[in-house]
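User: What would this chain look like folded?
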Amino acid sequence: MNRMIHIVDDDADFREGLAWLFDSRGHSAQTWAGGDAFVQAMRQRAPDWGPAVVLLDIRMEPMSGLSTFEALKEMSCPWPVLFLTGHGDVSMAVAAVKNGAWDFLEKPFQNNVLVDKVEEALAASESLLDDARHAERLRQALASLSPREREVLDELIAGHYNKNIADHLGITQRTVEFHRANIFEKMGVSSPVELAHQLGRHGLR
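Assistant: Here's the prediction, encoded as structure tokens.
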């Protein structure tokens, strides 16, 4: 999937310069003259997110970088946001990072430092999307389980053995083994420990 760098800045020379920089390093970049146009386009795109990073100028008119960031959060945009700030805006950028932004860089910055941070954020974006897709597959697999399979699953992640599960549910041990095999196949796991880990990791218990 193509990775994209979105450059949102109301300074035309600055944003085109950044686009050239990333193009020269083999990255795809798209420029936006303001937060309002960018947010409107992203609303039409949601929730079909690919891997991407947003470079966001903190001071823009009429829609500030902070307002743009809040709008992205409201639409559950998963992309890392890197704020580009002037000297007087550092405190705002720090507050934005505490509120979920990826990082910030103070202008003027070294090109290599910016590219390194963006490449790190792109890798994180791909990882987040992979996790989200995996979690969705697990949710669909959980929904496909029969009521009895859900009962057996609950027993398995509680650490119970097949014989105990059979006693608890009033079924034979062979039936437990049958349901257990079905659960593992549907959930894409090979052990109760892996099953518990996957469900816990994605908050699906």
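The chain has two domains: 4-133, 145-201. If you want, I can go into more detail on any region.
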